[in-house]
Design a protein that fits this description.
With 670 residues, this protein is α/β, with parallel strands linked by helices. Helices cover 49% and strands 10% of the residues. Strands 7-3-2-1-15-16-17 form a 7-stranded mixed beta sheet. A 5-stranded mixed beta sheet has the order 8-9-12-14-13, covered by helices on one side. Helix 13 packs across helix 21, helix 14 crosses helix 15 and helix 14 runs antiparallel to helix 23. The radius of gyration is 29 Å and the shape is globular. The chain starts with 12 loop residues before the first helix and ends in a 9-residue tail after the last helix.
Length: 670
């Protein structure tokens, strides 16, 4: 279309002729002056509404219960709304109980029915309260949008209640009679559940997940199930742990070995076995036969023996499985590095540098003492070659991953809703890093057939990742794409990693802790510079007076005084450690960044006890809110990406109106 128009007087016949094909298609939906005018009025009205609330989260790492609770309580936004509405009418304990009902309506109602002496009175009071909360959270949306969020069976009744007031004298009896009839017909429980679900839906307009759904915690598959059926708007920016699981689903054996190793390290069998049906019996059998007399001291699972319930025998089995798959991983990775010399990772074939007789590993001309020298499957003449038993095991594990229908379904969800980066309302979202040179300029990175940097690099990688799952991709490219998932996991120039090395081998086997150090790429230091952030934003075409980069990936060490706000507010890192394994490191349990019509707020969460505790006692995730950036005026839809889309539609409709009124396109009655 041509330049932006705001009135019919600014439309010219030449513009209409240039856009005639588009306008003729538009006329199929808006066939006359009345229909086109009505739509313009509707769109202009929407443009004046406050912008919806966006929620940004990162690095969920399988913490399903905490993530689900944050979605249910909208990062504390629902409690804030309830407090604003009833702060002078209800005690704090009553506000907590009402919020608990909104978060978990079905289970909370079970408890209330068993303890409440006057259910009808409870229903009457609670329905009035929930309607007021629902009116508050729906106030910034059109009736059409609210209607779409309503359950079909109660849509008409809820809509009537939302747009009527019990204080309106003429409608008071009408309003009250609806409530009374809901109770008398036995529909109160179902209606309360429906209202609570609507409140949850309308409290988050757009959900942004900045990567790393997988690994460490036990519920990544449950998070993905939730997202596959999520009824709201959400998008994903893939993280390195997501790429690892996507690579495993594509059949990359190095990725499969890493997935298994991480799962065993954190004692996370639920996602593998219950979630994706991965058969671990062959690995357990091999581990016991091969490492049955090995104490595997360096491979004990990182789990709490007091709360996990795993027996000592079970922990020992996990440790032996852990070591078995780790040795296989290092062999597979050496073969991958030989297949791709262009990746420059020759120095990472450390399994080939082991001297078992001397008990050392030679790195860069220096010998480092090894803490473990029991390698029964290692052939000194061909260290990276799998034994026949290892090769057979890899084949079985490979088969188990690639045939998992649930894993494939979840990967399709990641592709359907995800990308390497996203730009939303002047915010550039990507998981980890932007490869940079030491001077802060964008670094060129080789990907298969060329050199790419910045936005082109992210786009090329995203397309390559998809090609590993496309049947029409040429075999050579598909094989490279499948291999590349492992490079994304641990390659030095991978924007999902961007470190000198992944020191997994060193941490398991070398006593000298200096070898464990991983040098971060230049981005991790230079992102503190406002000029560098502006350069990156410019390279992605991100505009706006208030624009930001938002990342996850590296846990913010809040307990050490580190701030998630960097470069004078231009960059925000929102990995606060959802995973329990990170709580001691970060001192908190995750961040949610909230972007509403007034500006940005960063919500810092304390560890979540349990949904059961929230239901029984009305407890919530303890959160503190830090104001990051507030606007002097309330942002409206017209200030957003959606507003620009609507403005383009208005401009097209104004051209169509001109064409109708000047007979350039004929009206029709439909």
């Amino acid at each position: 279309m041509t330049a932006v128009k705001s009135t019919l007087a600014e439309v010219t016949p030449q513009q209409v002729e240039a856009d005639r094909r588009v306008l003729e298609l538009l006329a199929q939906s808006f066939g006359n002056i009345s229909a086109a005018s009505t739509e313009v009025i509707n769109l202009e009205a929407i443009m004046s509404l406050p912008k919806g609330t966006e929620h940004f989260v990162a690095d969920l790492h399988g913490e399903y219960e905490a993530f689900r609770h944050i979605l249910r309580n909208a990062s504390g936004n629902i409690k804030r709304k309830v407090t604003e509405e009833f702060g002078t009418q209800l005690r704090e304990s009553e506000i907590r109980q009402l919020c608990s009902l909104i978060y978990y309506p079905e289970r909370k109602l079970q408890i209330i029915r068993a303890s409440e002496s006057d259910l009808n009175d409870f229903y009457l009071v609670t329905l009035h309260q929930l309607i007021r909360v629902c009116q508050t959270v729906s106030s910034k949306y059109t009736r059409s949008k609210v209607r779409k969020a309503l359950p079909r069976e109660f849509a008409y009744i809820i809509e009537e209640l939302l747009h009527e007031s019990p204080s309106d004298f003429d409608k008071q009896d009408y309003f009250n009679r609806i409530i009374e009839t809901i109770i008398s017909t036995g529909q109160a429980d179902a209606f309360i559940v429906a209202l609570c679900n609507v409140i949850q839906k309308l409290s988050i307009d757009q959900l942004h997940i900045l990567g790393d759904i997988y690994d460490r915690g036990p519920g990544a598959h449950l998070i993905m199930d939730m997202l596959c059926h999520y009824e709201g708007n959400f998008d994903l920016q893939w993280g390195n742990h997501d790429a690892l699981w996507m690579g495993a689903a594509a059949g990359n054996d190095c990725c499969i070995a890493n997935v298994l190793r991480l799962s065993l390290r954190y004692g996370n069998m639920a996602t593998l076995e219950d979630g994706y049906g991965i058969n671990l019996v062959p690995l357990a059998t091999f581990a016991m036969e091969t490492y049955g007399d090995d104490s595997c001291e360096n491979f004990g699972p990182h789990i709490d023996p007091d709360s996990d319930g795993t027996t000592e025998k079970g922990r020992m089995l996990l440790a032996r499985m852990h070591k078995a798959i780790s040795v296989i991983q290092f062999k597979l990775e050496a073969a991958m590095i030989d297949r791709h010399p262009e990746w420059g990772m020759e120095s990472r074939k450390l399994i080939e540098n082991i001297d078992l007789e001397r008990g050392v590993c030679r790195i860069d001309g220096n010998d480092y003492e090894m803490s473990d020298t029991n390698f029964p499957t290692l052939d000194p003449s061909a260290p990276s070659r799998l034994t026949a038993e290892e090769a057979d095991l890899v084949k079985k594990l490979h088969h188990s991953f690639v045939i998992s229908s649930r894993l494939r379904k979840h990967v399709r969800c990641l592709f359907a809703n995800g990308c390497m980066y996203g730009v939303y309302n002047s915010n550039l979202l990507f998981h980890a890093s932007m490869p940079l040179n030491a001077d802060g300029s964008l670094k060129s990175v080789r990907v298969m057939d060329g050199e790419y940097k910045g936005q082109e690099l992210f786009h090329r990688i995203g397309m390559l990742m998809r090609s590993a799952f496309n049947d029409d991709t040429p075999a050579t490219e598909r094989r490279y794409a499948t291999d590349y998932y492992w490079y994304l996991w641990c390659g030095p120039d991978s924007p999902l990693f961007d470190k000198s090395k992944m020191a997994t081998f060193e941490r398991y086997f070398l006593t000298d802790r200096s070898t464990h150090r991983e040098e971060k790429g230049h981005y991790y230091e230079l992102r503190n510079s406002a000029d560098v952030c502006d350069m990156i934003l410019d390279s992605f075409g991100v505009t706006g007076q208030h624009r930001h980069i938002i990342n996850g990936h590296v846990p913010v060490r809040t307990s050490d005084g580190e701030s998630p706000i960097k470069a004078g507010g231009k960059l925000m890192v929102i990995d606060g450690g959802f995973a329990k394994a990170y709580h001691d490191t970060t001192g908190i349990a995750g961040y949610t960044l909230v972007y509403h019509s007034r500006g940005f707020q960063l919500v810092q969460h304390e560890p979540f006890s349990s949904a059961e505790d929230a239901i029984m006692n009305g407890t919530d995730i303890v959160s503190t809110t830090q104001i990051v950036e507030l606007s002097s005026r309330r942002m409206r839809v017209c200030d957003t990406d959606k507003g620009r889309e609507l403005q383009a539609q208005i401009d097209e409709l104004m051209e169509l109106l001109y064409a109708f009124r000047h007979g350039m396109i004929k009206e029709h009655s439909r």
